[in-house]
Amino acid sequence: MLDLTKVALIQGWDKQFLNHSTYIEHQMTQLGFNTELLHEQPNVVKENGGGLRIWQYPNQFSKYLCLLHEQNVHSYIEIGCRWGGTFILTTEYLKLCNDSFNESTAVDLIDSPVKEYCDARDKTTFMKSNSSSEQFKSFVQSSYFDLIFIDGDHSYEGVKTDYESCKNNGRIFVFHDIASDACPGVVKFWNELKTHESDKYDFYEFVEQYDEVFQETGKCFLGIGVAIKKAKICYITAVFGNYELTCKNMCKQTVASDFICFTENKKIRSNGWIIDTTPYHISHKSELDDGCKLNSFVNNKHSFNVAKFYKQSFQNVPRLKHYDVIVWLDGTIEITYDKTSEYLLSKIYDKKVIGWHHEWRRGILKQEADASIDYRYTNTFWNNQHQPYQDVKKQYEEYLKDGYSEEYFKQIESHTPNLGVWITCFAAFLNKDEEVTRFLKLWYLQTLKYSTQDQVGFSYVCQKSNLIPFTLPNSEITGDCPHDRTQFYIKHAHNS
């Protein structure tokens, strides 16, 4: 049994010391440690047994928690929770660090006493499961967790299986017993991961030992290894309703980059993309969608409209919050240039939004609106799905009433005569910037209110917010025909 009254002690920790390892190490002694395999344990653990039965060395775990303090963790899963002490301490600590932390899951084969703790709390779950089972793999691969703690099967194959099951569904991966002479399989896997995935992760180790244990046994125990994904930039796309048959190929980038496809099609050919089938447009619907607008999901369930959520409201998707840069790609886009990410990162922190000019419109939004008398907007039934009539002409007229001026962009000095209308099949955004957040919300609002023709709404929002994208092509990057191909990409036909 666990003494759950100890939870209140964690909740009472002084927040100003949450990144002080000496403070945490001292506080841990009041919570209670595991009483098994005492020959592996230092005196500080032996003398403070019971309570939450935390199976950790305080000198390792306190420093590990300090690392988490800076990671903005919103969700957590622990694979192999045993009694649950580590899970409880981690969950409560993350709640103290981040008011938006909102989900934790404990997994084990046994009927862990941590279930009592989980049952008394919202969005805190105990799952009795074998982590090598298809049931568990299906669960974790249809979820996303910022932090994944792997402490289950300690054989080499066991820890490898757990990692392979969830490697595309997390950001921070933690491995327990990486320095333990009692767990050679974990040690081997950790060392291989550091060797083979050094381009993908930043690695941290907390392996400090207690002299009295080593002198008595001649061995090292426990040890915590942390692998944090390096990628600051993520390319996203959304494929719903079989509008595209595959995720398009992408060129490996010279800097760490992630590619995530949001789709309901679990069998889509990924071509190296991470596939996420979580329906975030339902579970994390935008606050702007009040159900009363033309393209609110209750009024327009067309897959084309669903994709707009991921294109314009991606900041509502939890797994994307930690990236510095999000690059939207329509499902037709194949990245062909290996330095695309490198170039975007060199510009985006100053420019905030990066896009390609529309080479056919000469910067005149009315031309774009007039050209949108297209089946995707005028037909109330296309691609075998119903939708409301999308009145792009009325949308443009409303913009004029609101003060939109075709002369506005002509007054801005630019290298391109096409400034004023952009092709949004490729658009990069500085993800954590407040000005960009306001831009994205206003852009998505145009889709909800008026039409799914987001290129018309994009120009309006640029003018309304006075946030002008860094516009390509330019003297550095070629691509005069972005509807076809640029130095960055090739645009394929739909349904390919």
Mean pLDDT: 95
Indicate the low-confidence ranges by residue numbers.
none
Distance from first to last alpha carbon: 57 Å
Task: Briefly note the structural class of the backbone.
Answer: alpha/beta
Widest β-sheet, arrangement of strands:
3-2-1-4-5-7-6
Tally of strands: 18
Report the sheet-strand fraction: 15-25%
Number of domains: 2
Rounded radius of gyration (Å): 26 Å
Determine the oligomeric state from the structure: single chain
User: Largest sheet, described in full?
Assistant: 7 strands, mixed
**SS field, number of helical segments:** 18
**Bulk shape:** elongated
**Which percent range fits the helix content?**
25-40%
What attributes does this structure have?
2 domains, seven-stranded mixed β-sheet, alpha/beta, 496 residues, 18 helices, Rossmann fold
